[in-house]
Amino acid sequence: MTSPVSFKYFKTSPEIIRLAVMLYIRFPLSLRNVEDLLHERGIDVSHETVRYWWNRFGPMFAAEIRRKRIQQLRAFSKWKWHVDEVFVKVNGKRHYLWRAVDHEGEVLEAIVAKRRNKQAALKFLRKLMKRHGKAKEVVTDRFASYRAALRELGATEKQQTGRWLNNRVENSHLPFLRRERAMQRFRRMRSLQKFASVHSSVYNHFNQERSLTSRDTFKLTRAAALSEWHQLCSG
Is the model's pTM score more than 0.70? Predict the structure, then answer.
């Protein structure tokens, strides 16, 4: 866990920094949108300050969220994985964001690659298994590289393909793609990888599956998630 010294040399309170980072990562807002929203709340900061805060503290917050959730959900995340890749433009060139979610829509891993082939699929699946173990089932589309990569890993029998079986991960792409449009694309591959990793952790933290629970339950879980966010990097 990161210590309170992370905020030591900042005149702005940690609560304001957490709020600015949450607004920028969680919602499809630009840096200037966040600046305006903070100004309405009587907080006068520039959009470049928001940019610095997100670059400095976003990965810290994401790492702490990821550490806690992996410990809590390690057994459940091995049941079924949904794996897919989505096209993303980086400085005008096509790249591929490989993503995996579990049966509940929890984002397990997100990796950016220049290629969409067996080597990229193998690298992604190995990193996924290193962090989360081996799943009982792996749902993919009919892209041949998945079968080739799973064959090399000795897990061909775990693969499932079907027309609608992978809707879980297809739908999970949407929040990130909305966020990408608000950012007007990415200029560097490293920036895309960094934001994808942070965004997935924050999305997991606040994703309450509200359509599957009652209103009272949703309000309780939402309040708990916000309370936990306020405690990040507080020692």
Answer: yes
